[in-house]
Specification:
Two copies of one chain form a homodimer. In chain A, the strands form three sheets. In chain A, strands 6-5-7-8 form a four-stranded mixed β-sheet. Chain A has a two-stranded antiparallel ribbon with strand order 1-2. Chain A has two domains: 3-261 and 396-440, 2-methylcitrate dehydratase PrpD (Orthogonal Bundle), CATH 1.10.4100.10; 268-385, 2-Layer Sandwich (60s Ribosomal Protein L30, Chain: A), CATH 3.30.1330. Chain A has 20 helices and eight strands. By secondary structure, chain A is an alpha+beta fold. In chain A, 51% of the residues lie in helices and 8% in strands. In chain A, strand 1 (63-64) and strand 2 form a beta hairpin. The interface between A and B is large, with 58 and 58 residues.
């Protein structure tokens, strides 16, 4: 059986009652985190400029843009909410593959839900299915694939397509075609790191998935062999792959349990360093003026992905482990305020950033880092983080997540509105209409 | 200088007066052929289903859909006109790379022209620039690239983006960003051959290019190194490449002179066989009942791309050199009527198709084929086509092209309307407003 058909059959057969409560709760946590990120990113210049370009092409004020007053059609809502949920690089991460699971799936489902009624449980089920399938496809291809592609732009579009297929009630054949149409839109090269186009790639995965499902609903056809065919997704975009990972344990194990939420607003591979720096700063009451140099030892992928030494902009600084270490030591934080153009050009941050060195060590895992800070008086303080905060092994608590989301909504939503949004997220399984959440996440 | 900047500088500096008259005339021929294909494809089920899915998402009746009465916004017009211009596989071909140059560039420019006034000469200039740049990028990457990707989906989007950048009057920096945003949308795997999604990939290249230019116009940013960067378009999508081909002779030689127009409605690599079969049929007054078997000797790429032996559908039969040979001998033609589901299932065609054999011979060029037909009485008749009709070396005349376009418009436009559309195409250099052409190509 073609893989696309096997996945379609799973998606259409899956029921919420068959999914463990712990996985369902993780989906609610992911939804809360996504909602906060979308609201928090909604005033970013990338989002402002995209809206300026796209508003003349919106069919009508059908759907909410989280954190904003404009309303647009569902295809544009999927794109723009996806962009704002990702633009701060603060969204969730499937750590094994570096896929950001919620952006493609939640952005497109919530947009669809404002076009046709969708209950909270129906949303949760479609969301879980979309996340499951995109993560499994990511598991199959991430090896060599990730050095070239943004995997959320390539694998994420399948999650969006299949979630919409489930929510729209497509037939198995239509769902197979939706996956094929999605595969014709897998795109997004990593050269776009640190530019607005990175968030566009992520939002576009959401929009492309919805478009695929809408076309398939009308009988639009695609190849059934879209995954494993000789010129299909896997052979073209993944020189190394593990096809069996796509279906092994399907319906039994749930990838949402491997999801993680960022405490810091930058590339996840830099987080162990930030965690160590903040702990050192707080434990030793370090001040910028006291420090001579900072030495990092990290997993090689951290340097590969966040190796920019002198970031020219705030967006680029999210991909600089040097900048992340500097702000973590100077500010004791690595929130959105640490990745602005102003912070990048701050003389104190810049001076310390130039005295950060980093070396790769393949013996360290990706959730691990060693940091040594040499003070001007010759003292050396060191920290070995073995399981970074925010990892699956050391997760943010529900309260941590709430605090993060409250911070993201600050200045955009009123405190009352923010509280209502958070409680609406937690209550998603009881909502008669998930569109309630979209309205709760927009300003009064 | 980054390649994107070099291309942007060329595009913004180029003037119509600097382009040889022969290249300008070839652009007009390409426009005529594109217009005919878009009208001819406008009633295909792929187009009908796409419109059914997309009409609810159109911002308004701003732009024409060629051959149809519905009107949609510019982004949707670029997509749908691009799809209908390609869906019959009858559009133009840059033979060296197998890029279809006009679909991305003309579809997006004509849509844009109904949004803001654009003179015929301004259209021609932007069209020539878009075609030039997409063909040069295709020249750089087609080697190994084409075995995996539809090059119109990958290289074509750059042509659409830069043509729109020129037409919109973007700055050099905005044009660089438009090329970068375009590079984040290069997509389309070859697994979609013979499905509706193949035409979607081609139309999407047009739409994606327009979207890139509209975003860039608002200051949306992308990487300048989108082509040659370590994770950029070339390194990710082209394992073998010839980067120098992108700029060698830029502004001096014109790729539009390497463009060709199909006399037959199928994959261009099958055309030499069709040409030979029709010539044999006519010369020897062959009838289906007389023939025992048909033996083809072809360039290897013809078998690689059109090697389907028993096509299940009309769309798939465009990729069957066996079906093409059978209908060419039986019908003496290979127009759209030869690639329908009905013709695929016709007992006479099917019986002969099963008696067609093909072998590759690397000594034959791609515009060459040998065909031998053995008759039931033992007679063998043979033909060696050295330069297929429709190739650059043996082009369709202006009158041939007119006849092809008239045939495509038959039954969709009135004869008067069809004649007006054709004369409007020929007069493009004198048009005050190119939108005149869009209106001429829709039914009364």
């Amino acid at each position: 059986m073609p893989l696309a058909r096997e996945l379609a059959r799973y998606a259409l057969g899956e029921k919420l009652t068959g999914i463990p409560a712990v996985a369902q709760h993780e989906a609610v946590r992911a939804l809360l985190n996504w909602t906060g990120c979308a609201v928090g990113g909604s005033r970013h210049a990338a989002v402002e400029r995209a809206i300026a370009a796209l508003l003349p092409f919106s069919a009508g004020p059908h759907c909410s843009l989280l954190g904003r007053r404009e309303r647009v059609d569902a295809l544009h809502a999927a794109l723009v909410n996806g962009m704002s949920a990702h633009v701060l690089d603060f969204d969730d991460t499937h750590l094994r593959t570096l896929l950001h699971p919620s952006v493609p799936v939640a952005s497109t489902l919530l947009a669809l839900a404002e076009r046709q009624p969708m209950s909270g449980p129906a949303f949760l089920l479609a969301f879980l299915i979309g996340v499951e399938i995109e993560c499994r496809i990511a598991n199959a291809v991430w090896f060599a694939h990730n050095s070239h592609w943004y995997i959320t732009g390539t694998a994420g579009v399948f999650g969006a397509a299949v979630a919409c297929a489930k929510a729209l009630g497509l037939t198995e054949q239509q769902t197979v075609h939706a996956l094929g149409i999605a595969s014709a839109q897998t795109a997004g090269t990593r050269e776009m790191a640190g530019t607005m186009t990175k968030s566009f790639i992520h939002g576009r995965a959401a929009q492309n998935g919805l478009l695929a499902a809408l076309l398939a609903q009308q009988g639009f056809t695609a190849a059934e062999s879209s995954f494993e065919g000789p010129h299909g997704f896997v052979n073209v975009l993944a020189p190394q792959r593990d096809l069996a990972a796509i279906t092994a344990g399907l319906g039994t194990t749930y990838e949402i349990l491997q999801n993680s939420y960022k405490p810091f607003a930058c590339g996840v591979v830099a987080h162990p360093v930030i965690d160590a720096c903040i702990q050192l700063r707080n434990a030793h009451r370090l001040r910028a003026a006291d420090m001579e140099r900072v030495a990092l030892v990290v997993n090689p992928r951290a340097l590969e992905l966040t190796g920019i030494q002198s970031p020219p902009t705030g967006l680029k600084s999210k991909w600089s482990i040097y900048h992340s270490a500097a702000v973590a030591v100077v500010d004791g934080a690595a929130g959105e305020q640490q990745y602005t153009d102003a912070r990048v050009n701050d003389p104190v941050v810049r001076a310390l950033r130039e005295r950060v060195t980093a070396i790769p060590d393949a013996k360290l895992s990706e959730i691990e880092a060693r940091v040594s800070i040499t003070l001007r008086d010759g003292t050396i303080v060191s920290k070995h983080v073995e399981r970074v905060i925010g990892s699956v092994e050391n997760p943010m608590s529900d309260r941590d997540l709430e605090e993060k989301v409250r911070g993201l909504a600050h200045g955009i939503l009123s405190p009352q509105r923010s509280a209502a949004m958070i409680s609406t997220c937690w209550a998603v399984a009881d909502l008669e209409d998930i569109a309630t959440l979209a309205r709760a996440a927009t300003p009064d």
